[in-house]
Amino acid sequence: MSKAFRNLLKHIGSLPRSKQEQVYQWVKRYVDPSSPVGGRLIDEMRETRFKEGFECPRCASEHVVRFGKYNGRQRYRCKCCGKTFTDTTNTFLYRTRKGNEWIKFVECMFKGFSLRKSAEIVGVTWVTLFYWRHKLLNALKQMDFEQFEGIVEVDETYFLYSEKGKRGITGRKRGGKSKHRGISKEQVCVLVARDRTKTTIAKVTCMGRIVKSQVDKIIGSKLTSENVLVTDAWRAYKTYAKEKGLEHYRLKSDGGTHVIKGIYHIQNVNGLHSRLKQWIDRFKGVATKYLDNYLTWFLFIDSRSNESTKHNIKEFLLSSFVFEMTDTYDSLRLSKFSV
Ligand SMILES: [Zn+2]
Questions:
Q1: Are 94 and 37 in a shared domain?
Q2: Domain range for residue 178?
Q3: How much is the pLDDT for 171?
Q4: pLDDT of residue 228
Q5: Pairing of strands 73-78, 151-160
Q6: 145: nearest Cα among 277, 267, 303, 337
Q7: How far apart are the first and last CA of the chain?
Q8: Which residue, 113, 140, 253, 306, shows the most beta carbons closer than 10 Å to its own?
Q9: pLDDT averaged per 10 residues in sequence order, the chain, 339 residues
Q10: In the prediction, which pLDDT does 92 show?
Q11: Are 152 and 195 in contact (CB under 8 A)?
Q12: What are phi and psi of 242, to 5 degrees?
């Protein structure tokens, strides 16, 4: 691992998210696709943080000294805030003594294995693996990009609100069919926007039909006056594009025109919607509070289907490790859905 790479990752936590994405792209180029995934990867990931020079993960001070060992790992103490930490503090590997198990689990994630099957392979209970899944995804979810380019297809898709897994809930836990026709307040709106370079956002946006302020919340910061929006006929998009001063093509949803001038359509986003629905079916309903995590997971897999599994595992782990992750089992379990 190069010195430049280590130094880069040392400062990753203090960078704005747009810069973190640049680093992420850098990491992607750096990682050798043909190198084997193994126990060494975990060492490599630890090394990326504190190999040269230390920075307190809590107060960012560089006045850090060695402070004995903890669970066989070097421990450090910050002379400014007095806190101690190890090389995995504030990452998904914090307080876990497993290493290879995480790699095995990520492999199971890429192979689409259920938690029960994964538990047999990894040798960790499936409940633990459920939290590992969401720790990884909470970190990876922070991946970001600068701006969309050119034509941006925008369309929403809906999932029924679900509290799957919550104790004491009877009745519908798994999504299932809505009592109401059309789009109601019990449906969770996921907005998907994708440009023609395949840069994509897919995020939980609101309950029920989308309004223009919600469109702006999800994609506003990613758009410039150079972008051209293509959407269906829903009025929120029309008023939004008008207010933003964006060129806008609207497709009628009554089975009429699906392509305007040969290039303006939303078929890429609609294709993604159907791949997403098909992919997420395997979970037999997901709790709405975790839906953003599953969207992150899906986008990662969907954009890398041509890569080898080994390459994907390494990239997934390195990418997740770069982002701060302070969740505990309890904070995940007790978290609430909000939009
Ligand atoms: Zn400190």
A1: yes
A2: 151-286
A3: 45
A4: 98
A5: unpaired
A6: 303
A7: 41
A8: 140
A9: 52 60 55 45 61 71 84 80 82 71 89 94 94 92 90 96 76 52 86 96 95 96 96 94 96 78 94 96 93 96 85 82 82 87
A10: 77
A11: yes
A12: -65, -50
> In the structure, how many helices (H) and strands (E) does the chain have?
12, 8
Going from the Cα of 167 to the center of ligand 1, the distance in angstroms, rounded, reads 39
Ligand 1 centre and the CA of 79: distance in Å? 7
**Residue 309 amino acid letter:** T
Ligand 1 center–CA 3 separation, angstroms = 24
Tokens in use for 215? Answer: 């469109």
In a domain, 110, yes or no: yes
Do residue 91 and residue 171 come from a single domain?
A: no
Q: What is the largest distance, in Å, between two alpha-carbon atoms of the chain?
A: 70
The Å distance, Cα 8 to ligand 1 centre, comes to 20
Asked whether residue 245 is assigned to any structural domain, the reply reads: yes
Ligand 1 centroid to Cα of residue 22, in Å, is 27
User: Measured in angstroms, how far is the CA atom of residue 293 from the centroid of ligand 1?
Assistant: 30
For residues 237 and 122, membership in a common domain is answered with no
Q: Quote the tokens at residue 336.
A: 């609430």
Residue of 80, 82, 90 whose CA lies nearest to 57:
90
Q: What is the number of domains present in the chain?
A: 2
81 CA from centroid of ligand 1 (Å): 4
